[in-house]
Amino acid sequence: MGIRLLIADDHKVVRRGLHFFLKTQKDIDIVGEAENGQEAVELVRSLNPDVILMDLSMPVMDGVEATKEIRTFNQEIKVIILTSYADQDHVIPAIQAGASGYQLKDVEPDELVHTIREVLNGESKLHPKVTSHVMSHLMQTNQKEQKPLTPLTNRENDVLKEIAKGRSNKEIAAALYITEKTVKTHVSNILSKLELADRTQAALYAVKNGLDE
Q: In this protein, which residues make up the domain named Response regulatory (predicted)?
């Protein structure tokens, strides 16, 4: 069974272009298209896609609000923002709304397909141009007074370092000679102890603290 994909973009030419390319991928099944955020929310309820390619600037309801709405009733669906905006004012709200990926429309087609597959597998993917904005935001947030975090175990630190390298659970398991189930447990513990929302924030936390070296 292929990856059930929904495309949400207010420009028909963009939707058609994405549809034309992505339908050539044997593991991707395009189940619908939406021309605004509200329509995307409604289609998610009826079509139950696995992944959504979500534009940000759309009429009726924008991509951030649509992502928030979708995440209130379905935490399993993965949202990938696909937009032309790389500035912090657009990136941060999208990540906070629950997007698992953020790609710009100049992304290479093969990289977009890779992002779709990786995000479905629980990874987080950010376009290189937006990473610095997220890093800056996290640094500003961490400068505020916070309660002490629960320290990580040595093994959790090892897993966090691998997350920072962009490795999947399967790759981490192979690198550390543990099972994927054990990796998932460690990832869950890391997010809980560091009070982070997802792997994207965990990876950025690791980079900020020099654990990616």
A: 4-120
pLDDT digits 0-9 by tens, 46-86: 999 999 999 999 999 999 999 999 989 998 899 999 999 88
3-state secondary structure of 6: strand
Residue 56 near residue 85 (C-beta atoms within 8 A): yes
Give the helix/strand (H/E) hosting 196. Answer: none
Distance of CA 7 to the CA centre of its chain: 15
Q: What is the pLDDT of residues 132-154, one digit of tens each?
A: 656 555 555 554 445 556 789 99
Report whether 164 contacts 123 (CB < 8 A): no
- Given a cut of 90, whether residue 178 has pLDDT beyond it is yes
Q: In CATH, what number is assigned to the domain containing residue 180?
A: 1.10.10.10
- Kindly list the distances between the CA atom of residue 18 and the CA atoms of 52, 112, 121, 128, in Å, as whole numbers in the listed order: 12, 10, 21, 21
Q: Euclidean distance between the first and final Cα of the chain, in Å?
A: 38
Domain final residue, candidates 130, 159, 192? 130
Residue 27, amino acid: D
pTM over 0.85: no
Exposed/middle/buried for residue 78 (C-beta within 10 Å: 0-12, 13-18, 19+): buried
**Residue from 168, 160, 85, 169 nearest 127 by CA:** 85
Q: Tell me what percent of the residues of the chain surpass a pLDDT of 70.
A: 89
Q: How many domains would you assign to the chain?
A: 2
Say whether both 30 and 75 belong to one domain: yes
